[in-house]
Design a protein that fits this description.
Blueprint (H helix, E strand, L loop, with lengths): L21 E8 L4 E8 L3 E5 L5 E4 L4 E10 L3 E6 L2 E2 L8 E6 L2 E6 L8 E9 L2 E14 L6 E3 L7
Parallel strand pairs: 4-11
Antiparallel strand pairs: 1-2, 3-5, 5-9, 6-7, 6-10, 8-9, 10-11, 11-12
Length: 156
């Protein structure tokens, strides 16, 4: 925080930014004694999400979409397929787990109906941010035994 200092009884931090968050120290000195106090400054800001990564998954396999958001206070997450909230449509073969700044949408047994476009929205009291994902099909390459692009479900 180096360049923020004051010889006054108060400290003014112009143009506060998240980089200014942290612990500040105040020292009072006279001929008799020195007193030092610290204060923790928290800078709140709207969420910023990392760009979504498209994921290819073979039918019947497990697939995971991960959404990470930087925000103070911590963001709440919402997931959508097309424009439909997944909270209204949670099925036993998929789940949403959020821990801190990371939310995971897991498909335990991918079916044809799972393929498509997904959106993760991170929200706090200062705003929101979103990113999109494509869950697309892969098939096992008969020769190599490795996943390859599905000849029917191509990335858009």
């Amino acid at each position: 925080l180096g360049d923020v200092a004051s010889d006054d009884e108060y400290l003014e931090i112009p143009s506060i930014s998240r980089q200014r968050a942290g612990t500040y120290e105040c020292s009072a000195v006279n001929d008799i004694d020195t007193d030092v106090r610290t204060v923790d400054i928290t800078v709140n800001y709207a969420p910023s999400v990392s760009e979504g990564r498209d994921v290819g998954v073979t039918l019947g396999q497990r697939g995971v979409l991960e959404c990470e958001a930087d925000a103070v206070p911590e963001a709440d997450f919402e997931w959508y397929k097309d424009d439909r909230s997944l909270l209204l449509d949670l099925l036993p073969d998929r789940g949403i787990v959020t821990s801190g700044s990371l939310s995971r949408l897991t498909f335990f047994n991918v079916s044809d109906g799972d393929y498509g476009n997904y959106t993760c929205v991170a929200i706090n009291k200062l705003g929101s941010s979103n990113t999109s994902f494509l869950l697309y099909g892969e098939y096992l390459d008969q020769v190599q035994g490795r996943p390859g692009p599905d000849p029917v479900l191509r990335r858009q």
